[in-house]
Amino acid sequence: MDQYSETGLLTFFNTATSLIFLYLPSNNQTPMKKLSLILAASGLLFGFSFAQVEHEKQPPVTDEVKPTIDNMDAPDIIFESETVDYGTIPHGSSGVREFKFKNVGKTPLIISNARGSCGCTVPEWPKEPVMPGQSNVIKVSYDTKRSGKFTKTVTLTSNAKTATKVLTIKGDVLPDPNAPQQTKQPVTAPVTPVKKSSDGVPMEKSN
């Protein structure tokens, strides 16, 4: 209780006692009744003091939310690179690439799922927990029988601080050299039929 609270309580007690003796003349009140009134005022003062102390014991209300121990100790996954560029590769060549990562958290990392953005992108991930300080890889296989430029993603789900992580692959697959070549047909000028006479002799064009 601070100095201001103590001063207020003392003022309250003195005021209550003065009012009792002011409005209750001594010739109409017995000593026992006066004592009862004083005790009642003292009880009121005690109740007020107790309520004030309990109020001061309450912790201050704050909007700050502190991180829980679970969040502080959660595993943390760090990748060497979150994007793998295949570059320009031959048609039908190996489409397997790796994303290297490390668990820099304090508890085991568990990857529960990995999903490619299409059927041509198939990921593989470690099914066993990755212990703190350990490294591992996410393998991604792209179907290189599909010619042309591509950009695909793999979405990871884990118990890390960042529960969802998106990895990206991109590149350009050259055309299949064994694919049948489509030859263009030569363009010929339309042939105008020649008019003939009744005896089969071609007729000259008139100007």
Task: Please characterize this protein's 3D structure.
The protein is α+β, with helices and mostly antiparallel strands. It folds into two domains: 3-57; 70-173, Immunoglobulin-like. 26% of the residues lie in helices and 28% in strands. The protein has three helices and eight strands. The protein has helices spanning 3-23, 31-57, 69-73, and strands at residues 77-79, 83-89, 96-103, 111-116, 121-124, 135-142, 148-158, 164-173. The strands form two sheets. The protein has a four-stranded antiparallel β-sheet, with no helix packed on it. The chain has a four-stranded mixed β-sheet with strand order 2-8-7-4, with no helix packed on it. Strand 7 (148-158) and strand 8 form a beta hairpin. Mean pLDDT is 77; it is low at 61-69.
Query: How far is the first residue's CA from the last residue's CA?
Result: 125 Å
Structure summary, number of beta strands: 8
The secondary structure category is alpha+beta
The average pLDDT is 77
- Binned strand content: 25-35%
Radius of gyration: 46 Å
- The first-level CATH class of the largest domain is given as Mainly Beta
The description of the largest β-sheet is:
4 strands, antiparallel
Instruction: Give the CATH architecture of the largest domain.
Output: Sandwich
CATH fold label of the largest domain: Immunoglobulin-like
Oligomer: single chain
Order of helices and strands: HHHEEEEEEEE
- The name of the CATH superfamily of the largest domain reads Immunoglobulins
How many alpha or pi helices?
Answer: 3
Widest β-sheet, arrangement of strands = 1-3-6-5
The portion of residues assigned to helices is 25-40%
Question: In total, how many domains does the architecture comprise?
Answer: 2
**Global shape:** elongated
Low-confidence stretches: 61-69
